[in-house]
Amino acid sequence: MRRFAGALLVTLGLLAGLGYITLSRITRSWFQSDLALRSQLAVASARESLASHWTSDPTLLNRTLADITRDERIMAAAACTMGGDLRAATESYPAEFSCRSVLERMRGEAPAAQQWSMRAELPSGPVHLSATLVPADGGPLGVILLVHDLSYLERRDVTTRRLLLAAFFVLSLGGGLIALTAARFAWRGWTIELRRALTGQPTPQFQPLLRDVRALAERLAHEQEREGGAGIWSPARLRATLTQHLQGERIVILANREPYVHHKTPEGVRVLHPASGLVTALEPVMRACSGVWVAHGSGSADRETADSHDRIRVPPGEESYLIRRVWLSEAEENGYYYGLSNEGLWPLCHVAHMRPVFRAGDWECYVAVNRKFADAVCEEVDTDDPIVLVQDYHFALAPRMIRARLPRATIITFWHIPWPNAERIGICPWRDELISGLLGSSILGFHTQQHCNNFIDSVDAFMESRIDRESNAVVQGPRRTLVRPYPISIEWPVRWLQQVPDVASTRLQVRAELGLPPDALLGVGVDRLDYTKGIEERLSSVDELLTRYPQYRGRFTFVQLAAPSRTKIDRYRELNERIESLAAEINARWASGSYRPVVLLRSHHEPPAVFRFYRAADLCYVSSLHDGMNLVAKEFVAARDDERGVLVLSQFTGAARDLTEALIVNPYDLRQASAALAAALAMPPAEQGERMKSMRRLVSEFNVYRWAGRMLVDAAELRRKERMVGKFRSGWSS
Ligand code: ADQ
Question: What's the CA-to-centroid distance between 702 and ligand 1, angstroms?
Fold first, then answer.
C-alpha cells in the first residue's frame, strides 16, 4: 500500500513539473506577442502626433514619446530615423539600445517586417524591446523603439510556480488519501466499510468477512438453480424429494447417540432428549423420512422399553420411525466412546490445545464396535442397495465395513466436527485406517469447504488414490467418494417453540425466576460442558465487560446453561471444576447485595427450557474455540420471532460463515469480546431488528431439511449414474 502511494506521489510530482514548464513557455510566448501588439497599438495611436512632430520640434516629439510611456509597463521610448540616428528619447531610455544597433538587428532578422522585437537583460532586470516603423505616405518616417519592463513577468512566474507547488501539494495529498482509501476499501471489503460508514458502527472487527458473504450468495444461487427454486425446504418437501428421487425408499441412520433415551427415575420411566447437535439436526429429518435409526442404547430403561429385536417405535405418541438399539459393554463403551472417540479423535480434530490420547486398546475396541454397528445396519436394511447415513467421528470405519457387505449401498457419511489439516491428522497412529474407512462412503460430507479441502489434502498425503479436483472426488479403483460441504442447520420452525410463551412474558418470567428486576440485562450461553466451547473464555469476557464498562455492574447477568458431558473423562471433570471456581471468583469480585453477574446452571435442560432462555435474553454468546457448525447460534436466532436480541459469535465456528450479521469475535481476545458484549447491550432496537431479520431469513431457508435434502438429491444422482453404468456393463458382458 505504501509503495502504491509513493508511486502515485512521484507521478503527480512529474506531472506538476511538466505542467509548470509547459505553462510557463506558453504564457511567455503569449505575453511576447501581447507586448508586440501593444507596441504596435501604441505607435499606431500616436501616429499622427509622431508624424506631425517628426521633423519639427524635438521637444514635442519627446512629449509624444512621454505620452506613450504613460502605459505603466512601457519603461522608455525612442524615435530613430531610418538611417539609425536618434531623433528623440525619453529620459529613462537605456543607452544599451542605440538606434543603429537595433536597426541593424532588425534588418538582419526581419528585413521586410513592420515590427521586430527581442528580449534582453539590463542591469535593472529583463526587458522587452520592440522596434515599430512609423508609416507615412512616402515610406516609413522612422522607427519607434519601446522598452517594456519584464520584471513583473518574473514576479508573476514566481507566483505561478508557488501556485503550482501548492496545487501539487494539495493534489498529492488528495491523491494519496484517495489511493489509501481505495486500497483500504479494496482490501478490507468495500461493502463492510461502506456499511460501517453508513450505519456508523463502531466495531469493524465484529463484521463478517466479505468472502463468506459472497460464498453464501453463490451457494444460494447454485442450489436454487439445481433444485429449480422450489421455495423453502420443509418436512413435506423432504418427503417429496425422497419419493421423487429415491422412490420413497426408507433410510437407515447410524449414529452413536439415540434421539430418545429412556431413563429409570423414582417416578417411573422418563424419556429424555439428549443435548446433542447431531440429534437436534437429524431427528426432524427422520420424522420427515421414516426409516431406522441405529444407535447405542445408553439409557437405564432402554432395554426394558425395546422389543425383542431391540427396536422401539418413536417419537412417543407420534410413532413414525424405529430406533434400533445396540448394546455395549462398559469396556466397549470405555474404549470406543470415551477412549478413542473422545480422548483421541475429538481433541485431534478440534484446535483447542488439548493433546489427543491414543491407546492401542481403545483402537481395538473402536474397530470391534464399528463392526458391531455396521452389522446392525446390515440387519436393518431391506434391499441390497439401501441408503445409509453414517454419522460422525464415532464411525469412521463403518462405511467400508458396510460397503464390504453391501457393495451397492449408497453410503452418505457426515462428519459433524472439523477435519484438521493433514499435518495434524498425521499424528494419529491409525490415520490411514480412518481415512480408508471413510472412503468406503459414496458421499462424504463436512460442514465447510475448508474441512473438505483438509480431508482431500490428507488423502493426498497418506493414501494411494487419484484425486479428481474438478468434481471434488477421491477415486480408488472403480469406486469414487464425493467430498462435499453440507452446512448443517436446525428445523424451521422449531417445534419446541410452541411450548414456550411469547418473548415479552418469557422475559418477565425468567427474570423473576432468577430473582432479577424486570429491566435487568440478560446474556445467555448454552452448551455441553466441553473444553472446545470456550466457556472459560466466555465467563472471563463477562468479567472484562464489568471491568471496562462499569455501567453494566449490577445490571448485567450472564446465565450459563451447561449440560454435563463425558464426565467419565478426567479433563471434562477438571473443566467442570475450573468453570465453577471461575464463576465463583467473578461473582465474588462484582457481587453487591443480591446481585451476582454469573448464574451457572449445570444440568441438562429439556429443549423447551433451553428455548425459554433464548427468548428471555438480550444477547447470546457462543464462544467456541473450534466448532464444526454450532447449532446453539441458529437456535437463538430461531427463538427470536420478536426480531430482537444480539448474537455474539466466535469466528471459529462453522456458523460464523452463515450468520454474518452476528457480532463476530475472536473468543481468545477478551478485550474484543467484552467490547462486542458492550456493543450488543447498547445496540439500538432498529439495528438489532435488521440483523436478526436477516439471520432469521437465512436460517429459515438453510434449514435442516435442506441439509438432508441436498445430500439425498446428490445420493439419488449418484445412484442414477451407477445404475446406468451397471446397465451398460451388463449389456457389454451379455
Ligand atoms: P455439539 O458439539 O453437541 O454438536 P451444538 O451444535 O452446539 O454442539 O449443539 C448442541 C445442542 O445441544 C443444541 O441443540 C443445544 O440446544 C443442546 N444443548 C446444549 N446445552 C444444553 C443444555 N445445557 N441442556 C440441554 N440441551 C443443551 C456437534 C458439533 C457441532 C455441530 C453439531 C451438528 O460439535 O459443531 O453443529 O454436531 O452437526
Answer: 18
Query: What is the average pLDDT value for the chain, to the nearest integer?
Result: 88
Strand partners, 314: 321
Pull the grid cell for residue 164.
Answer: 503550482
Ligand 1: centre distance to CA 528 (Å) = 7
Q: What is the pLDDT of residue 59?
A: 83
Length of the chain measured in residues: 734
Whose alpha carbon is nearest atom 20 of ligand 1? 527
| Residue that has been written with the C-alpha cell 474438478 in this structure | 470
The rounded distance, in Å, linking the Cα atoms of 224 and 227 is 5
| Choice between 29 and 473, residue whose per-residue pLDDT is larger | 473
Q: Whose CA is nearest to atom 28 of ligand 1?
A: 277
Residue ID of nearest Cα to ligand 1 atom 19: 527
Residue-wise pLDDT tens digits, 95-137 = 889 999 998 888 888 888 888 888 888 877 888 899 998 888 8
Q: What angle do CA 94, 100, 103 make, to 5 degrees?
A: 100
Ligand 1 closest atom vs CA 563: 23
pLDDT digits (tens, 9 = 90+) for 299-348: 999 999 999 999 999 999 999 999 999 999 999 999 999 999 999 999 99
Amino acid, single-letter form, for residue 211: R
Determine which helix (DSSP H) or strand (DSSP E) holds 252, and give its type and residue range: strand 251-254
Surface-to-core class of residue 389, CB atoms within 10 Å of its CB (0-12 exposed, 13-18 middle, 19+ buried): buried
Dist. CA 635–CA 275, nearest whole Å: 13
- For the cut 50, the answer to whether the pLDDT of residue 291 exceeds it is yes
Specify the amino acid at residue 255: A
Hey, which of 257, 280, 492, 538 would you mutate to test ligand 1's pocket, going by the most ligand atoms within 8 Å of its Cβ? 280
Q: Is the model's pLDDT at 8 over the cut of 80?
A: no
Interval between CA 488 and ligand 1 midpoint (Å):
12
Residue 62 alpha carbon to ligand 1 centre in Å: 110
Q: Report the pLDDT value the prediction gives residue 599, as an integer from 0 to 100.
A: 98
pLDDT value of residue 191: 45
Residues touching ligand 1 (Cβ under 6 Å) are 275-278, 280-281, 416-417, 488, 526-528, 561-563, 604-605, 610, 627-632, 635
- The closest-lying atom of ligand 1 relative to the alpha carbon of residue 622 is 7
Question: Which residue out of 447, 611, 632 has the highest number of ligand 1 atoms within 8 Å of its CB and is therefore the one to mutate?
Answer: 632
Cell numbers for 716: 439419488
Quote the ligand 1 centre to 625 CA distance (angstroms). 14
What average pLDDT does the segment 488-497 reach? Answer: 96
For residue 632, the ligand 1 atom closest to its alpha carbon is 7
State how far the alpha carbon of 682 is from the alpha carbons of 92, 125, 196, 351, 541, in Å: 83, 72, 16, 32, 16
Using only the alpha carbons of the chain, give its radius of gyration: 44
705 close to 285: Cβ distance less than 8 angstroms: yes
CA of 659 to the centre of ligand 1 (A): 17
Q: Give the tens place of pLDDT for each residue, 648-701.
A: 999 999 999 999 999 999 999 999 999 999 999 999 999 999 999 999 999 999
Task: Give dist(CA 529, CA 564) in Å, integer.
Answer: 5
Find the 627 Cα to ligand 1 centroid distance in Å. 10
Which of 126, 134, 117 is closest to 50 using CA atoms? 134
Task: Give the distance (Å) from ligand 1 centre to CA of residue 631.
Answer: 6
Tell which one of 351, 629, 653 to mutate to probe ligand 1, the residue whose CB is within 8 A of the most ligand atoms: 629
Q: How far apart are CA 258 and CA 274, in angstroms?
A: 8
* 8 A C-beta contact, residue 557 and residue 599: yes
CB 442 within 8 A of CB 403: no
Atom of ligand 1 nearest to the CA of 281: 33
pLDDT, greater one: 16 or 697: 697
Identity (one letter) of the amino acid at 416? H
Whether pLDDT at 353 is above 60: yes
How many whole angstroms separate alpha carbon 409 and alpha carbon 377? 11
